[in-house]
């Protein structure tokens, strides 16, 4: 059984999948940083200095009564919150990842289509009587005048 597991684990598919998962996780981190550090700050600035990571609703106040200036302050006081700002960031991250995967799959499909060579349609055939090369649509051989129809 150990030998079978080793054969399974060393297959190309499993190793490729492992590499894909590792790279995907790293890509997810890059996209999260892009959203949180590059995309959302200018959007927040344009919308009136909104910090999306600090958008939240208080469901239940904590030990220290609100209002809370930041999500960190609300969490420190033990307040129960709905963090919809993080949700917005996650949606933006998802859209970026989905679009990136779409572009990747589109490129791979384009490469596959280029590699697929359509089958050649013959334009000539041999006369069954004199074996000379004639057009496929010919019904009479121009060389031996045999009827091919």
Question: Would you write up a description of this structure?
Answer:
The chain is mostly helical and 149 residues long. The protein has 2 domains: 2-50 and 83-117, Large-conductance mechanosensitive channel, MscL, domain 1 (Non-ribosomal Peptide Synthetase Peptidyl Carrier Protein, Chain A, Orthogonal Bundle); 119-149, no CATH class. Helix content is 54%, strand content 9%. It contains 4 helices and 4 strands. The strands form 2 sheets. Strands 1-2 form a two-stranded antiparallel sheet. Strands 3-4 form a two-stranded antiparallel sheet. A hairpin with a 6-residue loop joins strand 3 (124-126) and strand 4 (133-135). The longest helix has 35 residues, at 12-46. It is elongated and about 105 Å long. It starts with a helix and ends in a 14-residue tail after the last strand.
What's this entry about, in short?
Helices cover 54% and strands 9% of the residues. It is elongated, with a radius of gyration of 33 Å.
